[in-house]
UniProtKB/TrEMBL annotation, chain A:
GO cellular component assignments: membrane
Residues that span the membrane, as ranges: 30-50
The keyword Transmembrane is annotated on this UniProt entry: yes
Domain of life: Eukaryota
Name this protein carries in UniProt: PDZK1-interacting protein 1
Family (UniProt): Belongs to the PDZK1-interacting protein 1/SMIM24 family.
Keyword Signal attached: yes
From TrEMBL, chain B:
Subunit architecture: Forms a heterodimer (via TM13) with PDZK1IP1 (via N-terminal transmembrane helix); this interaction enhances SLC5A2 transporter activity.
Pfam families noted in UniProt: SSF
Reaction equations catalysed: D-glucose(out) + Na(+)(out) = D-glucose(in) + Na(+)(in)
KW Metal-binding (keyword) present: yes
Annotated protein name in UniProt: Sodium/glucose cotransporter 2
Residues forming coiled coils: none
Keywords of this entry: Cell membrane, Disulfide bond, Glycoprotein, Ion transport, Membrane, Metal-binding, Sodium, Sodium transport, Symport, Transmembrane, Transmembrane helix, Transport
Main location as per UniProt: membrane
Subcellular localization, as worded in the UniProt entry: Apical cell membrane
Transmembrane segments: 20-37, 58-77, 97-123, 135-161, 167-194, 201-224, 269-287, 308-329, 376-396, 417-438, 450-472, 479-501, 521-544, 661-681
Role of this protein: Electrogenic Na(+)-coupled sugar symporter that actively transports D-glucose at the plasma membrane, with a Na(+) to sugar coupling ratio of 1:1. Transporter activity is driven by a transmembrane Na(+) electrochemical gradient set by the Na(+)/K(+) pump. Unlike SLC5A1/SGLT1, requires the auxiliary protein PDZK1IP1/MAP17 for full transporter activity. Has a primary role in D-glucose reabsorption from glomerular filtrate across the brush border of the early proximal tubules of the kidney.
Disordered, as annotated region: 567-598, 631-651
InterPro entries hit by this protein: Na/Glc_symporter_sf, Na/solute_symporter, Na/solute_symporter_CS
């Protein structure tokens, strides 16, 4: 124990005081820029991936206007735009003549179900 | 007195050769031509047409107009001056805004669009209800326009004209104002946005030419970085050692001149302040201020607005190279003038004792540019000045008419509102001229600091309320109002002592106690922001929330909601109904009387048609010019269905998926570029 203390003491004494004070030389400016760029792109990538996995309902994003889809499908009156129109979602278990229009909102929001008596 | 000596000294440099004059007159012809063309093209007779350009703008006028209304002559003078005094870091003000302008396009504008508002106070009223917030915000915004924007821009424009033409500062200002008011008062937003586009071209082109000349003179990019540290004035010793001594730190360039990320405690622009504090100020400037948001609301659809924001972001890269660096070059080339340190000397050179860094840019122009190009640079300054002044005039006119006048006189008709908006602009001009001497006296030294410090004391509560209002459903009227009031009180507690004690200079520091003035103004902005936010949230949690039925399409999380909103501002609707009823009654009365005096009317009509052409010719001309001509009078009020359809179109925020992806990718590229530059100059 004593030997270890002595060694470290001599080492500290032996070192020049400046050794503890040197400021590391700055990086080249373009290198700094490149590092900042890489960090930013990595962060963007992470955010993108999170977004991709958490909000997979890209097709029904109400902010996006999908052309061509509307013409192909039958759309019940007054339900354009926001309502998913596939037949599976459309039929309701409550009864034969009860239909439900599911509204699929943007990521993170709850899915509301409106039942329509026909 | 000081102005006269200035004038006589600068007389030599005045622009009087034919080349310069022809360039300037060509420039004016182009601007007026574009203004007239867009006036002819657009409908200015309605409130939507005049104030929102018919909501039909594509992305490039939006982006150019955002840039042109942001960059005023204050930037040319202020950025270059602060650059000359303190080095590169001041460009952080511009590069920080690049990110905030994206926030505007992606997060704020969708909400404002679906809310279907014209002014920002109007948004707050819809969101929170009640009159007091709306009134408070409109008055505070108008106040800030006069004290931070209009007077500073006019002052710096006048400094430049004084240097270039040798005119008296007031003559210069009045000449400028006449030109600007002509096309603001007459044109409306569409004319403004198209002329802004022209102005942007002129500004960027001219500034690039000057940058070329400046770098050529100083020996290239490397030359600037080699010589800047040695740019010292020749007289550095105090002539009166008994009265004051000059310490080396007052005339030496700062150690960290070439860095944007500076020490957090001891430097002039600490890095946490640059990142956080500036974002708070920018949040107010870019995302909740009428001048900027109004331009975005004029967009054709959301994708165009986003693309415009990206264009503006790219343009915001330039000020570092076309303003800050030339300012530093100016210090290298003319250290005796630009870096003067002895008060008497400075007074002789530029008329203020605290320092002459403000003349850095004008000095470069008058001494480096050849004939003809000097005229071009004058045009550049005029472009910067006129475009941002005109934007502020238009927006404050909008604020005043829509938020204040409309409330005082709810029965006012569209035509009356348009006229009042224009008269208000004239009034505003008068007040701003009266304020110029104060700007001149208060902070002749560093203009940019003056603007930023005033906005740091007043803007953070507004930024907090908008941010929370848009993103947090729980915030209610009481919270927002007391947050604003508390924030204002805190800001005033700092601003008033600072004005009383004065900001001081390097030689004579102000006597303001450290407790009040010691905190850096950007740190103060951060503190103020978080305190106001805490008040807003605290008070909101203690009071009742606003039910969802009032908030559909007014907050970010409910922006796609299709449910019907029960507006909180029902009062206004009642007012509108009353107005309509009054109008109808008036009409009926007129019809009645017409039916009664049918014969008499007929006789008069014949006479009238004879007399009209001779007396009404001038009036008609003026009427067309102001967009109030026959066209708008004959226009019928649109039917309710048409109105509903129109508002449906205006509040629509759906986007085409491909174009949406394109703007998203572009935004990422722009941010990546900006990050690289931040790193490069860190």
């Amino acid at each position: 124990m004593n030997a270890l203390l002595a060694v470290s003491f001599f080492l500290l004494v032996g070192l020049e005081p400046v050794n503890c004070q040197t400021v590391q030389g700055r990086l080249q400016p373009w290198l700094q820029g490149l590092i900042a760029l890489t960090v930013f792109l990595a962060l963007t990538g992470i955010v993108f991936i999170i977004h991709k996995f958490w909000c997979q309902d890209k097709e029904n994003d109400p902010e996006v206007l999908n052309e061509g889809n509307k013409a192909d499908m039958t759309i019940p009156n007054g339900t354009e735009g926001n309502y998913s129109t596939t037949a599976a979602n459309f039929r309701c278990e409550e009864g034969h003549h009860v239909y439900q229009n599911t509204i699929e909102n943007d990521c993170g929001n709850t899915i509301e179900v409106l039942s329509t008596e026909m | 007195m000081e102005q006269e000596s200035l004038v006589s000294e600068l007389q030599k440099a005045s622009i009087s050769n034919p080349a310069d004059i022809s360039v300037i007159s060509f420039y004016f012809l182009v601007v007026i031509g574009v203004g007239l063309w867009s006036m002819y093209r657009t409908n200015r007779g309605t409130v939507g047409g005049y104030f929102l350009a018919g909501r039909n703008m594509v992305w490039w006028p939006i982006g150019a107009s955002l840039f042109a209304s942001n960059i005023g002559s204050g930037h040319f003078v202020g950025l270059a001056g602060t650059g000359a005094a303190n080095g590169l870091a001041v460009a952080g003000f511009e590069w920080n805004a690049m990110f905030i302008v994206l926030l505007l396009g992606w997060l704020f504008v969708p909400v404002y669009l679906t809310a279907g508002v014209i002014t920002m106070p109007q948004y707050l009223k819809k969101r929170f209800g009640g009159q007091r917030i709306r009134l408070y915000l409109s008055i505070l915004s108008l106040f800030m326009y006069i004290f931070t924007k209009i007077s500073v821009d006019m002052f710096s424009g006048a400094v430049f004209i004084q240097q270039a033409l040798g005119w008296n500062i007031y003559v210069a200002v009045i000449a400028l104002l006449i030109i600007t008011t002509i096309y603001t008062v007459t044109g409306g937003l569409a004319a403004l946005m198209y002329t802004d586009t022209v102005q942007t071209f002129v500004m960027v082109g001219g500034a690039f030419i000057l940058m070329g000349f400046a770098f050529n003179e100083v020996g290239g990019y490397q030359g600037l970085f080699d010589k800047y540290m040695n740019a010292l004035p020749s007289r550095m010793v105090s002539p009166m050692p008994a009265v004051y001594n000059i310490s080396a730190s007052c005339y030496m360039p700062r150690e960290d001149s070439f860095h944007m990320i500076r020490d957090a405690i001891s430097s002039d622009l600490p890095w946490p302040a640059i990142i956080l504090g500036l974002s708070v100020n920018s949040l107010w400037y870019w995302c909740s201020d009428q001048v900027i948001v109004q331009r975005c609301l004029a967009g054709k659809n959301l994708t165009h607005v986003k693309a415009g924001c990206i264009l503006c972001g790219y343009l915001k890269l330039l000020p570092m190279f076309i303003m800050v660096m030339p300012g530093m070059i100016s210090r290298v080339l003319y250290p005796d003038e630009v870096a003067c340190v002895i008060p008497e000397e400075c007074k002789r050179i530029c008329g203020t004792e605290v320092g002459c860094s403000n003349i850095a840019y004008p000095k470069l122009v008058v001494s480096l540019m050849p004939n003809g190009l000097r005229g071009l640079m004058l045009a550049v300054m005029l472009a910067a000045l006129m475009s941002s002044l005109a934007s502020i005039f238009n927006s404050s006119g909008t604020l005043f008419t829509m938020d204040i006048y409309n409330r005082l006189r709810p029965q006012a008709r569209d035509k009356e509102l348009l006229i009042v908006g224009r008269v208000w602009i004239l009034l505003l001009v008068g007040v701003s001229i009266a304020w110029i001497p104060v700007v001149q006296a208060a902070q002749g030294g560093q203009l940019f600091d003056y603007i930023q410090s005033i906005s740091s004391y007043l803007a953070p509560p507004i930024a907090a309320v908008f941010l929370l209002g848009v993103f947090v459903k729980r915030v209610n009227e009481q919270g927002a109002f007391w947050g604003l009031v508390g924030g204002l009180a805190m800001g005033m507690a700092r601003m008033i002592p600072e004005f009383i004690y004065g900001t001081g200079s390097c030689l004579f520091p102000s006597a303001c106690p450290r407790l009040i003035c010691g905190v850096h103004y950007l740190y103060f902005a951060v503190i103020l922001f978080f305190t106001s936010a805490a008040i807003v949230i605290g008070v909101s949690l203690c009071t009742l929330p606003i039910p969802d039925k009032h908030l559909h399409r007014l907050v970010f999380s409910l922006r796609h909601s299709k449910e019907e909103r029960i507006d909180l501002d029902t009062e206004e609707e009642e007012e509108a109904k009353k107005r309509q009823a009054a109008r109808k009654q008036h009409q009926e009365q007129a019809e009645m009387s017409a039916a009664k005096n049918g014969k008499l009317e007929h006789g008069l009509e014949v006479e009238g048609s004879k007399a009209a052409p001779s007396s009404g010719w001038l009036r008609q001309c003026v009427g067309w010019f102001c967009g109030l001509g026959t066209g708008s009078q004959e226009q019928e009020e649109p039917r309710p269905e048409e109105k509903a359809e129109e508002s449906q179109r205006l509040t629509d925020i759906t986007e085409h998926s491909t174009w949406r992806a394109v703007v998203n990718i572009n935004a990422v590229i722009m941010m990546a570029l900006s990050m690289f530059l931040w790193g490069y100059y860190a």
